[in-house]
TrEMBL record:
It is found in: Cell projection, Cilium. Residues 417-433, 465-493 have a biased composition (Acidic residues). This is N-acetyltransferase domain-containing protein. GO terms for molecular function: acyltransferase activity, transferring groups other than amino-acyl groups. Residues 408-518 are annotated as: Disordered. Residues 13-164 form the N-acetyltransferase domain. Pfam families: Cluap1 (PF10234). The lineage of its organism: Eukaryota, Metazoa, Chordata, Craniata, Vertebrata. Keywords: Cell projection, Cilium, Cilium biogenesis/degradation, Coiled coil. It comes from Mus spicilegus. GO terms for biological process: cilium assembly. InterPro entries: Acyl_CoA_acyltransferase, Clusterin-associated_protein-1, GNAT_dom.
């Protein structure tokens, strides 16, 4: 059993007494429910001892809940619990102390605490757990009104819940009252559902009232059973008295300060008062002052009469204006009704244009989406082309750098070979010297231009030598061949003369369309 059991399945739950055969099952359940470990003797006592009252809740034969209570006489209960029971119970009354109460996870949140609290608070109607299996807004509204009256009997909250708007207004009024008066925040959505979730919100109110009732206890031992069932908690009047006391305290402080200041001026005022009393009064001066005062008073009376006359005339003018406005209002109302009853002439055309506009908008929306898609595709294409171009450019740059390095290396190796040729011994023949000098540039050019068969190369690798170097090289050859015949010398000069211009390598001209020049 891993899922929460629905409320409809509670009808299949039954109660029975625990027996000795249930000890193993109860041990396993208590190990899951409680953080403490009970001794084996406790399990034997709750299943066999008569002072314990143990019930098991079974669902389809399996134990899903358990309650263990100890039966005591009223005279043996705890002292702090004595005020909870009513005095009408006799001394021989037996009391059940709940020791353990556990329910498996799948059957939780279908509890009975709300119904028991309402019964303890004195709710006149019996509430069962079955009342909240389906939405019952009437019962929820009745309970809310009763709880609000327990907080403040003088509150005025409308109880009309016929329409949906009335129910919403009722829930909002209850939530606002509890938030301002009792500082209890309620979930209006769950209250409006009026099902098991609403009971959780009602528990917030009933738990406060129930705890207050337990704290206060029952006043008086001779209170009748009828008065005991009624629990009055006038929180609103207490708050009003507190506000009045604070206001009076502030007024007393202000008046005390002003009285202290006036008493400090009493010495000077006493002297002035004595002088005024001792001074003799002149009859003529007194009559003059009285005449002036009477004249001012008569002027104020006349002014007041004029204002009254003006008020009467203004009232008549206002009544005439009001009547005129009423006639205009009635005329405009009739005109409005006439306009509303007549269909405008352009309405058909307007509806047709509106339909065309909707179609055009649909076409525009489709084209706009297509355009956005094509622009995205174009951007992707440009990005891919740019990436290919950058990759080709990097490859070309690497090839050019590699060719430059190879050219430098070959030039360096060519210069070293020339120096070796100059210091050869005189016994080498002219043909061997000529063959060596002609074979090295050809080999260098073949290595340099490997992989580029389409390019035509003109010249030799000794293109960097000047004319003076060429002359000096010819002179060295002539000195080495002085012993040869003059005819051979002429033939060698004729054979070597075409090779001189071919020693310089012609570099490829840069392309006009190249992005980067190296």
């Amino acid at each position: 059993m891993t899922e929460v059991v629905p409320s409809s399945a509670l009808s299949e739950v039954s109660l029975r007494l625990l027996c000795h055969d249930d000890i193993d099952t109860v041990k396993h359940l208590c190990g899951d429910w409680f953080p403490i470990e009970y001794p084996d003797s406790w399990y034997r006592d709750i299943t066999s001892n008569k002072k314990f009252f143990s019930l098991a809740a079974t669902y389809r034969g399996a134990i899903v809940g358990m309650i263990v209570a100890e039966i005591k006489n009223r005279t043996k209960i705890h002292k702090e619990d004595g005020d909870i029971l009513a005095s009408s119970f006799s001394v021989d009354t037996q009391v059940a102390y709940i020791l353990s109460l556990g329910v498996v996870k799948e059957f939780r949140k279908h509890g009975i605490d709300f119904t028991e609290m309402m019964r303890a608070l004195g709710y006149p109607r019996h509430i069962s757990m079955e009342n909240f299996r389906t939405p019952n807004f009437g019962l929820v509204s009745e309970v809310l009104l009763w709880l609000v009256k327990r907080y403040e009997p003088q509150t005025d909250i409308p109880s009309d819940i016929e329409t949906e708007q009335d129910r919403v207004f009722f829930i909002k009024a209850i939530a606002q009252f509890m938030a301002t008066k009792a500082h209890i925040k309620l979930n209006t959505k769950k209250l409006y559902q009026a099902d098991g979730y609403a009971v959780k919100e009602l528990l917030k109110i009933t738990s406060v009232l129930y705890n207050a009732m337990k704290t206060k206890g029952m006043e008086g031992s001779n209170v009748g059973e009828e008065d005991i069932s009624k629990f009055k908690f006038d929180l609103g009047s207490k708050i009003a008295d507190l506000k009045a006391a604070r206001q009076l305290a502030s007024e007393i402080t202000a008046k005390g300060a002003s009285l202290y200041d006036l008493l400090g001026k009493e010495v000077e005022l006493r002297e002035l008062r004595t002088e005024a009393i001792a001074r003799p009064l002149e009859i003529n001066e007194t009559e003059k002052v009285m005449r002036i005062a009477i004249k001012d008073l008569l002027a104020q009376v006349q002014k007041t009469k004029d204002l009254l006359n003006n008020v009467a005339s203004d009232e008549a003018n206002l009544e005439a204006k009001i009547e005129k406005r009423k006639l205009e209002l009635e005329r405009n109302r009739k005109r409005l009704q006439t306009l509303q009853s007549v269909r405008p002439a352009f309405m058909d055309e307007y509806e047709k244009v509106e339909e065309d506009l909707q179609k055009q908008y649909a076409v525009y929306l489709e084209k706009f989406r297509n355009l956005a898609y094509l622009e995205q595709q174009l951007e992707d294409h440009h990005r891919m082309e740019q990436e290919r171009f950058e990759e080709a450019e990097n490859t070309l740059r690497l090839m050019q750098n590699k060719l430059k390095e190879e050219e430098k290396r070959l030039l360096k190796s060519g210069s070293n070979d020339d120096s070796d040729i100059d210091i050869q011994e005189d016994d080498e023949s002219d043909s061997e010297l000529e063959d060596r000098r002609m074979s090295k540039p050809r080999t260098a050019m073949e290595v340099l231009m490997q992989g580029r068969p389409s390019k035509r190369i003109v010249g030799a690798m000794q293109g960097g030598d000047s004319d003076e170097d060429e002359d000096s090289e010819d002179s060295e050859i002539d000195m080495e061949d002085d012993e040869e015949d003059d005819d051979d010398l002429e033939d060698e000069s004729i054979a070597l003369s075409p090779a001189k211009p071919s020693r310089r390598i012609r570099k490829p001209e840069p392309l006009d369309e190249s992005d980067n020049d190296f």
